[in-house]
Amino acid sequence: MYLVTFRLDPGEYDAEFHELNDAIRAAAEGTDGYLGQRTWNDPEGDEVLVVYYWETLIALESFAADSDHERAKARWNEWYDAYEVTVTEVIETYGSGFGDDADPPG
After folding, report:
1. Which of 15, 62, 93, 95 has an alpha carbon 20 to 30 Å from 78's alpha carbon atom?
2. CATH for 2-91, among 3.40.190.10, 3.30.70.100, 3.40.640.10, 3.40.50.11540?
């Protein structure tokens, strides 16, 4: 499994951002190998973390090539003050479990 952590400092969102964001979400959800996502908001600031779960690196790369996703990446500075993406290969997970909230989501 692969996790993609998208850390962002939001800026100003406009209607075009929301339209593109919805298209990207639909593309991710329609990609074979997409397992879900989780979002966390910093209670003391504006920072947001979104973690996307992917079954394989091939699935992730397929999504990354989506044309709407490519357009959004090229325009990040219109909507975010800063961002960082970290791609992680999961070697092992363990713990007591979270029931219906267990990772990966879904």
Report:
1. 62
2. 3.30.70.100
Question: Using one digit for the tens of pLDDT, what is the confidence trace for 8-17?
Answer: 888 888 888 8
Reply yes or no on whether the pLDDT at 40 is more than 80.
Answer: yes
Check residue 6 and give left, alpha or beta (phi > 0: left; psi -120 to 50: alpha). beta
Name the nearest CA neighbour of 80 among 24, 6, 12. Answer: 12
- Mean pLDDT of the 43-69 span: 91
Cα dist from 8 to 79, 80, 84, 86, whole Å: 10, 7, 6, 12
Instruction: List the structure tokens of 82.
Output: 């800063």
Cα separation of the two ends of the chain? 14
